[in-house]
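Work Package 4 report. The design task specified in the project plan requires that, given a folded chain encoded as structure tokens, an amino acid be chosen for each position. We show below one input record used in the internal validation round.
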């Protein structure tokens, strides 16, 4: 069985069992690999640890339920795999920048606080134009979902790629 198949099987399991046993041992069992090897494979393929993915998926499910339902916060926490409401509130605040009750009162399913800037959401100006044909390069993303765009712009994230582009298309380095 390919690693991609195992990864998909584990992610499906995490999605379908948010309040179940999502320990590294259980996820490795679902992947049919040793816990140590599975942890290395999972991190190499997703850029996140199993624990980070489980936390993100549980909190995302809880955020959606907070906005859509009138169910108590403690009950949502329990059903999303947080038996202790205090640990749920701490994890939610760390990810979304506010308590679950404040999030519910806001009534909007916004992106986690890591993607937002202080002072509200700002839109970048959009310009539609026709450009002459040119070659471009696509890069697969490996790592955290939350990328610091300043590092990408300054070339610190993809120095090796920037050097390669400079050799291939010296005039198009500005694309990074």
């Amino acid at each position: 069985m390919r690693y991609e198949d195992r990864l998909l099987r584990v992610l499906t399991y995490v999605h379908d069992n948010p309040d179940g046993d999502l320990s590294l041992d259980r996820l490795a069992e679902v992947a049919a690999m040793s816990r140590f090897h599975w942890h290395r494979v999972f991190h190499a393929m997703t850029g996140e640890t199993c624990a980070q993915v489980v936390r993100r998926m549980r909190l995302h499910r809880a955020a959606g339920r907070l906005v859509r339902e009138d169910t108590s916060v403690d009950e949502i926490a329990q059903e999303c795999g947080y038996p202790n409401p205090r640990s749920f509130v701490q994890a939610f605040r760390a990810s979304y920048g506010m308590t679950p009750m404040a999030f519910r009162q806001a009534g909007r399913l916004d992106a986690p606080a890591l993607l937002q800037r202080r002072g509200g959401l700002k839109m970048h100006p959009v310009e539609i134009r026709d450009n002459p044909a040119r070659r471009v390069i696509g890069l697969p993303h490996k790592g955290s979902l939350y990328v610091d765009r300043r590092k990408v712009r300054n070339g610190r994230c993809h120095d090796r790629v920037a050097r390669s582009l400079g050799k291939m298309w010296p005039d198009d380095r500005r694309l990074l």
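Residues 50-68 form the longest helix (19 residues). Validation will be extended to a larger panel in the next phase.
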